[in-house]
Amino acid sequence: MSWAETTLLVVAAAIVVLALSWVRASRLDRLHRKVAASRIALDAQLVRRASAATDLATSGLLDPASSVLVADAAYAVFDAEGAAVTPEDALDMAGLGGDRERLESALSATLREALDGPQEVGELRGTLAGEAFVANLAATWYRAQLARRFHNEAVAQAQRARRHGWVRALRLAGRAPVPHTVELDDLMPAGLGAPGPGGAAQTER
Question: What is the DSSP-derived secondary structure letter of residue 62?
């Protein structure tokens, strides 16, 4: 093999390596941006859920003790560090943070205690106002569940891409932090159900 042929092969191999690196790096960048965007969306849905819980707590439809507990749990979410995530915050890939996840879980548990069965939910739905508050809470809660699922799937995709041998060998992730999933208790109360066609909440039969 001549010197010219050897040089040509080296140049061709370098071009292939650069092309593959660019493709991998571009895909990883898109996945990181997807994680950041889904985290912002999740935060927005959780804030809406807390707002719906506050509306219910201040509606006068719950008993006084439950109203106070639900309102306190919802306000704690609003006051939490990391609420209202900015694009810059989302790029740190750190999920919502342990404190925020704990407060969101506490709100879920408090709402389940206040709406602890289909009968209680049915009584709330006995009035037009009650139906509106419950339906709004069910809809925002369901959207928050979907947003968390979507975010965690995006994180899993990014984590798999970062584990690829090519990405690790060439350090294509750069200084971007490893993304983390959001783990919190978002189980809906029995009888609240998910919104069905038209936005109305559906209960299990």
Answer: S
Query: In whole angstroms, what is the distance from residue 203 CA to residue 196 CA?
Result: 9
Backbone angles phi, psi at 111, to 5 degrees: -65, -40
Q: Which two tokens stand for residue 52?
A: 């719906």
The burial class, CB within 10 Å (0-12 / 13-18 / 19+), for 118 is: middle
Could you tell me the maximum CA-CA distance found in the chain, to the nearest angstrom? 89
> Is the separation of the CB atoms in 113 and 175 below 8 Å?
no
pTM: 0.78
Cβ atoms of residues 80 and 50 within 8 Å: no
* Residue with token string 């009650």: 130
80-138 pLDDT, tens digit per residue, is 755 555 556 655 656 677 789 999 999 999 999 998 877 777 788 888 888 999 999 99
Gap between the Cα atoms of 60 and 33, Å rounded: 42
Burial of 177 (0-12, 13-18, 19+ CB in 10 A): exposed
Backbone conformation region of residue 95, classed left if phi is above 0, alpha if psi is from -120 to 50, else beta: left
